[in-house]
Amino acid sequence: MNKRLTIALVAHDQRKADMVEWTVFNAETLAKHMLVCTGTTGGLIKAAFEEKGVDAEIICVHSGPLGGDAEIAAMVVGHKINLAIFLIDDLSPQPHEADIQMLLRQCRIHNVPIACNRYSADLMITSTLWDNDSYVPTVPKYVKFVRE
Fold first, then answer.
1. Which residue of the set 13, 55, 69, 90 is catalytic?
2. Is residue 58 within 8 Å of 46, Cβ to Cβ?
3. Is the pLDDT confidence value at 47 over 90?
4. 97-109 and 68-77 are packed helices; what angle lies between their axes, rounded to 10 degrees?
């Protein structure tokens, strides 16, 4: 992948180990891009990368419950995020559920690919479309559907 992307990385507490493992596995690829992480997740990724000798640009925003999900959603709206990886804990209630849904919604509205599990994250990060200069994602069409 030659294009430099801005990739958002978010993981709930019960998924942080998965996120760290995934980022270490994909460290060579991720180090070529700018990573924007929620606070705790970013700190864990920085520590794992330092331990492995990986030099990567990692920007940390607030922790998710303290507004980090909303900060990343704002970056999506501002067209500053190319790809989001959000490992969600679907088995535990989250006190900031509204922010989580807002981030997911803004990614859908603004056509930002978002992976919510490691398999989809692997597929997205390795897509050859990132390097295809002739590929331009279509803008979502929100038009009323009329049944006949």
1. 69
2. yes
3. yes
4. 10
pLDDT at 95: 84
Q: Which two tokens stand for residue 73?
A: 């959603």
Count the residues in the chain.
Answer: 148
Tokens (6 digits) for 7: 């990739």
Tokens of 142: 């929100």
Lowest mean pLDDT among 45-59, 61-75, 131-145: 131-145
Decide: helix, strand or coil at residue 89: coil
| Model confidence pTM above 0.85 | yes
Up-side HSE of residue 10: CA atoms within 13 Å toward CB?
27
69 is catalytic: yes
Tally of CA atoms within 13 A in the half-sphere of 55 that contains its CB: 0
